[in-house]
Amino acid sequence: MADGEGRAVRFGIIGCAAIACTLFRAIKLAPNATLVAIASRSLSKAEVFKSANGVEDSVTLYGDYESLLDDPSVDAVYIPLPTSLHVKWAVAAVEKKKHVLLEKPTAMNVAELDVIIQACEVNGVQFMDGTMWMHHRRTDKMKEFISDPSLFGELKTVHSNFTYLADSNFLANDIRLNPNLDGLGALGDIGWYCIRSILWATDYKLPNSVIANRNPTFNDSGVPLSCGASLIWDNGLIATFHCSMQAQMSMDLCVIGTRGIIHVNDFVLPFDETFASFNHCSDSRFTEPIIGWRRPLPREEVVQMEIPQDARMVVEFSKLVVGVRDEHRSPEMKWAAITRKTQLVVDAVLASIENEFKPVDVHQG
Predict the structure, then answer these.
(1) Domain named Gfo/Idh/MocA-like oxidoreductase N-terminal: which ranges (predicted)?
(2) Which domains are seen in the chain, by residue range?
(3) Nearest to residue 301, comparing CAs of 151, 145, 193?
């Protein structure tokens, strides 16, 4: 059997949140995955999801999560539940030997995430979080550029931001702003992507310290609506990010080296899912006299996509599941390590905010 081939991975979806619609489509588009079950807190909610999304009649519907986890036809589960419920249901799934694709943010803090990761290790199942942009072909091409010393040189700084303007209904009712369901707010919802992009650019080397920016904003329940931070490494590298639910839509990433630079304006969700682009440049200089840029000027690189990034995520996760299920390989734990480092920085940002914006050391732990 060739690497990654074999019987399609049979997915169950636990929870019918809006993002579950995206993953339902992704599973349909992935050639090595199939949806076999959906569970909600009531059968009627599962039926509404089925009707709204054109789910096939062959998919089993459950009115509780436990029944789906007991279904022997389910190999893996996608869990888009509120973050505060992740530990309970991810561990429950893992203990039933289900592989877990867990929506981000993956936990309220790293202590909770460690419970999930340890359960995955003990039970020998695959873990991955739902950070979709990581699986885009453009991400691979950008990594090639910044990994080439002749084009990019030494990494010096990274700047990342993700913002959108939430309406009054969202601010009043969305679970991401309910402290009993997901108290991380903008930091967990969109700051997660910014932090991941910074770690991605640094080959996942954790910063030595984090300093939260002053003047974050919160709702009446104390959930972050906007915040940011500086990440600092002892070798002089520095990165910054900002996330906000109170500003115009933006998804910008800028990675700067001694010789090269990349810019991308839609790094989380490409403008078009059939292709995506980024700008890059090496060895730019001023003209003489200083009235402009001399060549080479920044140029756009376009990357075509056969299937969208969410479907590529499902494909890559499913390949790993097949390796464990059919080829008796050990789970690939690099994804859990990447998730854990992201969570550590999230925790450090919150700790710095709570500590009057003083630096907070970041430890692998």
Answers:
(1) 9-128
(2) 9-133 (3.40.50.720), 136-308+343-361 (3.30.360.10)
(3) 145
- Mark 121-149 as b/e (b = at least 16 C-beta within 10 Å): eebebbbbbbbbbbbbbbbebbeebbeee
Coil, helix or strand at residue 246: strand
pTM check: above 0.90: yes
Helices 86-95, 110-123: crossing angle, 10 deg rounding: 10
What is the Cα–Cα distance from 203 to 257, expressed in whole angstroms? 14
189 DSSP assignment: I
Nearest to 76 by CA among 322, 258, 361: 322
Burial of 28 (0-12, 13-18, 19+ CB in 10 A): middle
SS3 at position 133 = helix
pLDDT digits over 188-201, tens only?
999 999 999 999 99
- Please give the Cα distance from 127 to 106 (Å, whole number): 11
Looking only at the bridges linking them, the beta strands covering 127-129 and 275-282 are unpaired
190-219 burial code (b ≥16 CB/10 A, e <16): bbbbbbbbbbbbbeeebbebbbbbeebeeb
Q: Where are the beta strands (DSSP E) in the chain?
A: 9-14, 33-39, 60-62, 76-79, 99-102, 127-129, 155-165, 209-212, 217-218, 224-232, 238-244, 246-257, 260-264, 275-282, 285-286, 293-294, 299-304, 360-361
79-135 pLDDT tens trace = 999 999 999 999 999 999 999 999 999 999 999 999 999 999 999 999 999 999 999
- Alpha carbons 191 and 199: distance in angstroms, whole number: 12
Q: What is the spatial distance between Cα 160 and Cα 208, in angstroms, rounded to a whole number?
A: 18
With cut-offs at 50, 70 and 90, classify the pLDDT of residue 294: confident
State pLDDT tens for residues 224-269. 999 999 999 999 999 999 999 999 999 999 999 999 999 999 999 9
pLDDT at 17: 84
